[in-house]
Amino acid sequence: MEGRMGFMGWINLGMSLIGACSIGLGIRALATGKLPRRLSEQYRDPVAGGRCLLGFGLFFLLQVVGYLGVEVGLFGSLVRGAFVLLAFILAAVTVLLYRPRRDVASRP
User: Fold this and answer.
1) How much is the pLDDT for 1?
2) φ, ψ for residue 56 (rounded to 5)?
């Protein structure tokens, strides 16, 4: 199986794409002060939405960095555990501080 990407490789590729897109959208929201209509309805203001997107983008990318660091041999599984722990702490803080509003009616 050398030279082929396994299941976890595909999962991490997807997580890195989601994280990169989320960070890009968060930076755009913070820079321009605008969110796409669907997202602007869910957050108090564009800054909260941008910070939420940045937080979740970093959540995904920290996990990918932890996985790839072990796979490539840059560091051991203890450092990977620290990356994953930091990612989940960041996600918890992001949810507590910048979670979407609850009074938004769901749309089809």
Assistant:
1) 46
2) -75, -30
Give the Å distances, CA to CA, from 8 to 23, 65, 86.
22, 13, 20
Q: What is the pLDDT of residue 51?
A: 93
Q: Which residue has the tokens 């989601």?
A: 18
Q: What's phi and psi for 81, nearest 5 deg?
A: -60, -35
Task: State mean pLDDT over 77-101.
Answer: 91
Residue tagged 């599984």 (tokens): 77
Segment 21-38 mean pLDDT: 92
- Separation between Cα atoms, residue 91 and residue 39, nearest integer Å: 18
HSE on the CB side for 48, CA within 13 Å? Answer: 14
